[in-house]
Amino acid sequence: MSAASKARRVDPQAEVVVLERGGAASFAACGIPYFVGGVVAEAEALLARRPEAFARAGIDLRLHTAAVALDPAARTVTVRGPAGEEDIGYDQLVLATGAVALRPPIAGLDAEGVFTVRHYDDGVALRAYVEQRRPRHATIVGAGYVGLEFAEALRAQGLAVTVVELAEQVFPGLDAELAQHVEEELLAHDVVVRTGEPLARIDHDEAGTVTGAATAAERWDTDLVVVGGGVRPASALARAAGIPVDEQGAVITDARMATPVPGVWAAGDVTGVRHRVTGRRAYIPLGPTANKQGRVAGENAAGGDATFKGVVGTSVAKIFDLAVARTGLSEADCRQEGLACVAARITAQDRAHFYPGAGDLSVTLLGEPGSGRLLGAQLVGAGAAKRIDVLATALHAGMTAHDVADLDLAYAPPYAPVWDPVLVAAGQLVKALGAAPPAAAATAAGAST
């Protein structure tokens, strides 16, 4: 919808048609856990714009209408909707098919009471199941952002919750030390955590309704299962049409969001991004990225000339009373990319120690030996959401650890101590890197010359 709206603004005379197989468009997918948990009372509140608003803007939005085939040579799309199947033509095509949830090879995954939640309709169905069937225990498959947000949501609805994660820790995208803080938070809210082993099976009764779940080591009773084990690009339509994809299955685009096929653009979770820290292509499916890419694709499809410069992979999640945030690379990412890195880890209070409600904030910063360049950051605790954006900005600007340590950050007792945790962590990273600040290094170089 970002692409459609931008195309309409760029060329008010263009005919803009949007095909959507579901019953809603322009909805806040990241808000679904809060609707399921009852923080958001009505599902309609998740709709950013209603269908009639797009109609008034001159956008032909066709709900419950699926694109089932593409013919880039003929520039046609085969669609299947309420009126049957037909071919429609296009001059420019934007692929924004998003991602599909990974479905692990678990026996019983098709039982009633098993949910994968990607779309608005999925969230409505899950909350209806909770309210009508009154399950007592939920099993969450996957302990990443989505899985843990649903763990909190279902605890808020009074369910007992067990989280199962194949990796050796919750939040596999975090370094192990910070992930331990997240696990402690889950345990403090009576969430059972099982890491290091996959879910082996889901049991069901003769009617096909979930009754239990098991790993190789243990079985427990459960009457609701939510699968939150990650996503992959929904690129089957593109691949069938001969549109190139990368090794992860994401549609290949350039900075203008153009695919190698003339007249075809792609945006959002179906494609990848340029990671600004590594300079390489990556798959980072996040909502803000999708919207920005959509605007670029829509502008260019309508005759404009926009580019998408990439991301640093910034994200934040609320897990009960913790904020969990990261940006840039982790130590595992650095190893995978072949980048040397040095880590600094600190725990400090997020506001003045004497101010009521002060809490611990754990910060990990990574820097590149030699250059001193900041490579990534992870924060867990109170105040993480405020500070992750500072560090994302530093990554966008290519700042060094010295640069970050010199930042003029705001101080007021209700919001931060005199020495903000970001400054403390950056100072420790400077020490760990063992490099002179840029000015001193330049002076030393001049003297030696």
Can you walk through the features of this model?
There is one protein chain. The chain is α/β, with parallel strands linked by helices and 449 residues long. 29% of the residues lie in helices and 25% in strands. It has helices at residues 2-10, 32-37, 51-56, 120-133, 145-156, 176-188, 236-240, 287-301, 331-337, 384-396, 401-405, 421-433, 438-448, and strands spanning 16-19, 59-62, 66-71, 76-81, 84-89, 93-95, 99-101, 114-116, 137-141, 160-165, 191-195, 201-204, 210-214, 219-221, 224-227, 231-233, 264-266, 273-274, 281-282, 315-319, 322-328, 342-349, 360-367, 374-381. The strands form eight sheets. It has a five-stranded parallel beta sheet with strand order 8-15-9-10-11. Helix 1 packs parallel to helix 8 (287-301). It is globular. Residues 439-449 have low confidence and may be disordered.
